[in-house]
Amino acid sequence: MKGRDSKEDDSNENKKTVAIVGLDGAGKTTIINRLLRSEFNLTRPTFGINIEIYKYRSLEFVVYDLGGQMPLRETLWEKFVSSADGLVFVLDSADKKRFNIAAEEFNNALSYNQEAPVLFLSNKIDLEDAASSDDVLDVIDFGELIRLQRKYNFSRCSALTGEDLFESWDWLTHNLAADQDLPLTNVKILGGFIFDSDGTEIETVILGKPKTQAKRVELFKRGKYELSRFIRQMEQYPKAETLLQAHKNQLIIIKKENIVIGIIVGENDPAARAVQILKTLSDKVERIFTDSKKECLKQLLEDNYPLDIIKDK
User: Fold this and answer.
1) Residue 186 domain-assigned?
2) Distance of alpha carbon 22 from alpha carbon 2, whole angstroms
3) Which residue has the higher pLDDT, 38 or 262?
4) Is residue 274 a part of any domain in this protein?
5) Is 165 within 8 Å of 158 (Cβ atoms)?
């Protein structure tokens, strides 16, 4: 990971790597594709190693996606994990028969690198038989990480629907970019969308003065296209989330039952904040549309998030 405007892009100081490990079938490559390309499909197992470079917010990640088959765990993991600046361990939360094996391999990965911040993702919560947090924590021991005061985060997520994935990745981003001036608490909302889950557009809001709005027309056309694509792909899921790069901005979308809401924010803004805003808005919008079906997004943004709305000078 490196600063986009760095003058020493090729120096080791400005590049940070992330190793993503876990047993075969845990969903590592699906997570990477979700983050890189917003692909909403399952992927084939990785036999070996995939190296991906991509931009997230203002930073560039170099990610090692390591296959989880036993021969690879014994030969590749130590080499790549030991040199990584960040470690992500992915668990298939529905593969309960192999929890003990996963716990052992998690401890092995920690022993290969005792300094990198650790993001533990209990994946596939979209499945009915996914284990609860308590079930996972009964097997996975974070006691040593706590004792050593090592930075770590445990999160349940779905690579397929995006639930809690981007908020977790935000945590890792901030811990790897401690020297970067990234905003933590607020976003800059340029506008947003409300759609029915069947793809019917209810409301589009472009904030700012008319001259500013005119400059953003193409951005919002792109946003509508991506939001419609997301609705088609996530049709069978009652809840879903995604984040997309759009014209040097970010489009964050959430689906909750019959309402789909998206907002466009600045390229460096924290996804976790944007997702929380959308979750709160979705509840308010659902109540309003249950009663009256009137347009409401602009008023809700102005009333509830005045510090997050971008202002024309």
Assistant:
1) no
2) 25
3) 262
4) yes
5) yes
The answer on 149 and 257 residing in a single domain is no
Q: Per-residue DSSP letters for 262-293?
A: EEEEETTS-HHHHHHHHHHHHHHHHHHHHHT-
Alpha helical stretches, state H, the chain: 28-37, 70-75, 77-82, 99-112, 133-137, 143-147, 165-176, 210-215, 217-233, 271-291, 297-304
| Residue type for position 280 | T
Per-residue pLDDT of 53-104, as tens digits, reads 877 776 678 888 887 676 666 667 888 899 899 999 999 999 999 999 999 9
Say which residue the tokens 């014209």 belong to.
Answer: 247
Res 274: pLDDT = 93
Which residue has 């759009």 as its token pair?
246
Q: How many structural domains comprise the chain?
A: 2
Query: Are 49 and 156 within one domain?
Result: yes
Query: Is the domain of 170 the same as that of 199?
Result: no
For residue 56, how many C-alpha atoms fall within 13 Å in the half-sphere facing its CB?
A: 30
Q: What is the pTM of this model?
A: 0.84
Domain holding 265, by residue range, is 191-308
> Phi, psi at residue 168, to the nearest 5°?
-65, -40
List Cα–Cα distances, 58 to 167, 169, 174, in angstroms: 16, 14, 11
181, two tokens: 């001036």
Structure tokens at 179: 């020297």
Amino acid at 96: K
Pairing verdict, β 59-66 and 17-21? parallel
